[in-house]
Known about the structure:
Elements lengths: L2 H9 L3 H23 L2 H17 L10 H29 L9 H21 L2 H12 L4 H8 L3 H19 L4 H13 L1
Helix pairs in contact: 1-2, 2-3, 2-4, 3-4, 5-8, 6-8, 7-8
InterPro entries: RNA_pol_sigma-70-like, RNA_pol_sigma-70_dom, RNA_pol_sigma70_r2, RNA_pol_sigma70_r4_t2, RNA_pol_sigma_r2, RNA_pol_sigma_r3/r4-like, WH-like_DNA-bd_sf
GO molecular function: DNA binding; sigma factor activity
Protein name: RNA polymerase sigma-70 factor (ECF subfamily)
Amino acid sequence: MDEKDLLFRLQAGDHDAFEKLYQSYAAKLTAKLVTLLRDKDLAGDILQDLFVKVWQLRADIDPDKSFGGYLHTIATNMAKDKFRNSLHQQLYIQSRTDLTEGYDSVSRFMDQKDMRAAVDAALSKLPPRQREVYTLYKIEGLSYKEIQQRLGISKQAVNRLIQEAGKKMREYLLPIGYLMLCSVMVEQLIR
């Protein structure tokens, strides 16, 4: 059956069309998610959430645009959100000495204090709008859409500001081992 026809049927609430689209894309999306997340179970969970979202947003799907591209964009964003949320959770747990055992709390406090000071110093060097958008996205965990709505700017502006701020933050934090810090965090999340 023609994919465009399936998308029109999906918009109308046709469960059979939804099932056919799912069967058509599930294996490719799972492979992409496993590559991104390195966790087959987590990839399966996100795939399920992705297709729940597709069903919920079916009326907004444009049958004239690439459905595969649409799915891949949503899957990538959901994986990034999961990673970012896991990173925030990991950082929170690491910051709570009462939640971990067997770690020198004075050393932990000094490391966190130094890291916070370095991040604060780097943030203070950013232009105000970049700092605001970067903080909302990276620290508070807001999505592009939420930032766009809160600040009344376009998605492209949000993306540009985050990219520029990220580049500057990497430059500012490089002397204290930004790349090493990120690789350690990523490694801990993957385990």
